[in-house]
Design the sequence.
C-alpha cells in the first residue's frame, strides 16, 4: 500500500475495493477484466464517462480476452505440425493456383456450409502449407479444427478398433468443424486400414467439413485403397460438393534448392574469377 493511499482516505478506500474486486474477478475467471479494469477505471473517471459506458468497456475487454484465449487453445488443440499462413504463401511461385479462390476459401464459408476441400498436386507444391493456413483461418473464424496425416490417422483408427474404442475415437473427431487429413497417398493402407478410413470419411463427411491433401491423381487412389468399389465410394463422398484445388508446378522446395544451387555456382564462378 502506498503512503499516498494511507494519507488519502479515498485512495485507501479504492485500494481496499480493488483488492476485493481482484479476488472476485479471479474467482469468476475473468482475466481480461482483471488485467484492464484499473486502467479503464482511471480513464472513465478522467473522461467523466457514465457507468454503462464503463461497464461495457470492462465486459468488452473480457470478451476479447476470452476470444483470444479460445483461439490460442484451439490452435494448440489442432496439432498443426508447424505454423503456416497465407501471408507467407507466395502465389507467384504457384502460378497454377488462383489467388482469389484460395482467399475465398480462407473466408471459411466452406466450413459453415460443410463443404470439402481437396488439395491435389505433386510433393513440395504447398499443399500442407495451404492446409495449415486454411485450418488456422478457420480457427480464427471461430471453428474447431484438427490436423492429422493419413498415416497417423490410420494407425489411430486401427488401435481404436483393436481397443473397441472406435466409437469414442470417431466422436472426438465429430466435435471438430474442420478435419484436415494430410498426405493421402504416401503410404498404402492395409485392407482393414482402408475400411476404417472409409468409415471415418463416411461418418464425418456428412456432418463436417473435410480437407484432404494428396499427391495422387484420383485415378491412382485405388492403388492405396486397394478396393476399386470402396475407392469410388470414398471419392464420391470426399469430392461431393468439394473445392478441388490443384497445386501443380515444379516443387517449391526443389525450386528453392535449385535457386540456392545456382546462387552457389554463381558465387563459386565469381570467386574463381577473382
Ligand atoms: P507439399 O505438402 O505439397 O509437399 P509443403 O506445403 O510441405 O508441400 O511445402 C514445402 C515447403 O515449401 C514448406 O515449408 C512450405 O511452407 C514451402 N512452400 C511451398 N510452396 C510455397 C509457396 N508458394 N510460398 C511459400 N512457401 C511455400
Ligand atoms: Mg505435405
Sequence:
Amino acid at each position: 500500500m502506498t503512503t499516498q493511499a494511507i494519507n488519502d482516505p479515498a485512495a485507501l478506500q479504492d485500494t481496499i475495493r480493488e483488492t476485493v474486486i481482484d479476488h472476485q474477478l479471479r474467482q469468476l475467471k475473468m482475466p481480461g477484466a482483471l488485467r484492464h479494469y484499473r486502467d479503464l477505471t482511471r480513464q472513465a473517471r478522467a473522461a467523466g464517462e457514465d457507468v454503462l459506458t464503463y461497464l461495457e468497456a470492462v465486459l468488452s475487454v473480457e470478451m476479447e480476452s476470452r476470444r483470444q484465449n479460445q483461439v490460442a487453445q484451439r490452435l494448440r488443440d489442432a496439432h498443426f505440425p508447424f505454423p503456416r499462413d497465407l501471408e507467407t504463401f507466395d502465389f507467384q511461385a504457384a502460378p497454377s493456383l488462383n489467388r482469389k479462390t484460395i482467399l475465398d476459401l480462407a473466408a471459411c464459408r466452406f466450413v459453415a456450409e460443410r463443404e470439402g476441400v481437396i488439395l491435389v498436386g505433386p510433393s513440395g507444391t504447398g499443399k500442407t502449407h495451404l492446409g495449415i493456413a486454411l485450418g488456422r483461418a478457420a480457427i480464427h473464424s471461430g471453428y474447431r479444427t484438427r490436423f492429422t496425416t493419413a498415416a497417423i490417422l490410420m494407425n489411430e483408427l486401427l488401435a481404436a478398433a483393436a481397443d473397441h474404442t472406435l466409437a469414442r475415437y470417431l466422436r472426438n473427431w465429430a466435435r471438430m468443424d474442420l478435419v484436415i487429413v494430410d498426405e493421402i497417398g504416401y503410404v498404402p493402407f492395409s485392407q482393414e486400414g482402408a475400411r476404417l478410413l472409409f468409415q471415418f470419411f463416411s461418418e464425418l463427411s456428412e456432418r463436417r467439413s473435410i480437407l484432404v491433401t494428396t499427391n495422387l491423381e484420383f485415378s491412382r487412389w485405388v492403388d492405396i485403397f486397394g478396393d476399386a468399389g470402396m475407392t469410388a465410394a470414398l471419392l464420391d463422398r470426399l469430392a461431393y460438393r468439394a473445392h478441388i484445388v490443384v497445386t501443380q508446378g515444379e516443387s517449391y522446395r526443389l525450386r528453392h534448392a535449385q535457386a540456392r544451387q545456382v546462387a552457389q555456382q554463381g558465387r563459386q564462378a565469381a570467386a574463381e574469377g577473382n
User: Anything to note?
Assistant: Residues 57 and 211 are 39 Å apart (CA to CA). The radius of gyration is 26 Å. The chain has a mean pLDDT of 91.
